[in-house]
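Box 3.1 A note on notation
Throughout this textbook, protein chains are presented in two layers. The first layer is the amino acid sequence; the second is a token string describing backbone geometry. Keep the layers aligned when reading.
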Amino acid sequence: MSFCFNFPNPEADNENQYEKTGSISTEKESPDQDEEEIPAIEMKLDWKHLTPCKNPNTIAYDFNETSTLVSISPKHLEIILKENSENSEITPLKEALQNQCDLIPNKYEGGLQIWECSIDLTKYISNQMLSGSSVAEIGCGAGLPGLCALKKGASTVLFQDFNSEVLTKLTLPNILLNCYEERERCYLFSGDWGSLPQAVNHSTISLQKFDIILTAETIYNTKNYQKLINIFDFLLKENGYILIAAKNYYFGVGGGTRQFEESLKEDGRFTSSVCWTKADGLSREIICAQRKKT
């Protein structure tokens, strides 16, 4: 079965502003069958010997006077990956590109694109005080929110994405381009959220609880809500907070900010409130969640 979500975007009038804003195609033969989890693992990197790409094709983002970031162009990266796919192993990311899909559940979760709610979240935290904070970005893709946190003085940033290929080809190059001096304060994890706690427990991170958790465009699939809430509970410090940037409603799957807030309420471990909203066009919000006080 295949289906497509087409979200209108009146703002995106040039590539420099938004790379991808809401068209998601998915393919899945049997949506009701149980799927095997991709084990979460930490990417072990020799940061001292990693250097930025030479003459990369990038997109610049100016969030405010002190927060400017660049990202490897996903469109340019797609071209390179497609050109190299004929004589190499077909990976989930290459399969998605060949089939022109932005989402293949349990294989590729759209991490190569830069989604508009990631831009919203980066703009929002660019005006926050983050110096000395430990930060985790869940479902990071290009990693713009986490990179902004690093540039604003975060002590540690964990970048997590479902696909290891997204981390190596997009997230990691972006870290080296934007935060080369801070690169050794970064930790990268791939795989399913269900096994992320175990991977973090066996990782090189001495700090296993975080002041701030960031996540954008990760609540479109209601089936993953409990996993995500469990990750929040595992990673968040007692007095920390979570920022969740998403659309009010994802057509075709039923997820969205209201439904996720309802799931948080039913779970009972967190309280939540809307701290930012964009009402015109396709409604988008940022939710702030914290542990419920006992």
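The mean pLDDT is 84. The chain has eight helices and twelve strands.
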